[in-house]
Design goal:
Strand content: 15-25%
Shape: elongated
Bound molecules: 5-O-phosphono-beta-D-ribofuranosylamine
Distance between the termini: 47 Å
Number of helices: 10
Number of strands: 13
Strand order of the largest sheet: 3-2-1-4-5-6-7
Order of helices and strands: EHEHEHEHEHEEHHEEEEHEEHH
Oligomer: single chain
Radius of gyration: 23 Å
Length: 325
């Protein structure tokens, strides 16, 4: 089986969602494993459970209320704990703090959260009470990607839960929690699997490549590739590559300055770069994209650099002018 994606879970309390993620990860074929449980409450019962199950636990002291320095230190320590545990993805599970923007940027597209409402309804707290007061017929839960704005990132999955006559916030919360436990592990498994799915990776590469001026997709030797310039006289600046010639990599090939730079990159960062068959000889390096921690801004920079190396001057000037703003 392919290596499993390493996940850190952050909690503040009971940690029943964390437990659901952990036990689901024991099933054969589950594409993720839990490598760390941490959070903002060193006494959270969920931490004891995780430790008893043999999962690494980092107990951090609560940041001092209204002390910006202590808060910054806390989040730096939390991020370091996740990095040191080798985590590639973070799952928030009843973690009751808002992550600072710098934290979210560092882990961009790699933090998921579960929220006990059908987002975009009822962001924030007291979701069950608010659903009851609004007279809703259904409540539910949502797994979403975390962005700096609270409870607003892309929705990955939702489960509806019927509201029963006589429901209180507590009785409803209990049933929603059952749905949460089912939904979260499935959504997390789908999300991390998608990161290895060539079709999904291609869609992201195409989005970035085709956002550059005067570009189009054109197959080259049976693989998708991207050109700059006119349909007639365009030049290739990126080749998409799926496990080509026995390699394990799904990636995109971009142009380096030549063999020296290529070998340097592949030697110094073998997780990020590979030397492709055939194309390597002319200085094309492969960016490994079937891994959970791809930095897509970095991919965009490489695509632009590769585009610049073959684009006609009239187009590079255009981009220079646009970059001024
Ligand atoms: C869950 O309802 C979660 O959606 C919410 O807080 C609760 C945490 O419960 N944000 P647990 O700690 O996972 O048991």
């Amino acid at each position: 089986m392919a290596e499993r994606v390493k996940v850190a879970v952050f909690i503040s309390g009971t940690g029943s969602n964390m437990a659901a993620l952990l036990y689901a990860s024991k099933a054969e074929g589950c594409p993720y494993e839990i490598v760390l449980v941490s959070g903002d409450n060193p006494e959270a019962p969920g931490l004891d459970l995780a430790a008893a199950e043999g999962v690494a636990v980092t107990r951090l002291a609560k940041p001092k209320p209204k002390d910006a320095g202590s808060k910054a230190e806390f989040f730096a320590a939390l991020s370091a704990a996740a990095r040191n545990a080798g985590a590639q993805v973070i799952a928030l599970a009843g973690f009751m703090r808002i992550l600072p923007a710098s934290f979210v940027e560092e882990w961009q597209d790699r933090i998921l959260n579960i929220h006990p409402s059908l987002l975009p309804k009822y962001k924030g707290l007291h979701t069950h009470q608010r659903a009851l007061e609004a007279g809703d017929a259904v409540a539910g839960c949502t797994v979403h990607v975390v962005t700096p704005e609270l409870d607003s990132g892309a929705v990955l999955g939702q489960t509806e839960v019927a509201i029963l006559p006589g429901d209180t916030a507590d009785t409803l919360a209990r049933r929603v929690l059952i749905a949460e436990h089912q939904l979260y592990s499935r959504a997390l498994a789908d999300y991390v699997s998608r990161q290895n799915d060539p079709e999904h990776i291609y869609t992201r590469v195409a989005e970035l490549a085709l956002a550059l001026p005067e570009t189009h997709a054109r197959d080259s030797h049976g693989s998708p590739a991207f050109r700059v310039g006119t349909e007639k006289s365009g030049k290739f600046f990126a080749h998409f590559s799926v496990k080509h010639h026995g390699s394990d990599h799904v990636g995109v090939l971009v142009k380096t300055s030549g063999m020296d730079e290529l070998l340097d990159l592949v030697e110094s960062q073998p997780d990020v770069y590979f030397k492709p068959a055939y194309y390597g000889a002319s200085g094309w390096v492969g960016l490994v994209l079937n891994r959970a921690d791809v930095d897509w801004d970095h991919v965009a920079e490489w695509l632009e650099r590769s585009w610049r190396s073959v684009a006609p001057a009239r187009l590079t000037k255009l981009l220079d002018a646009a970059d001024q703003f």
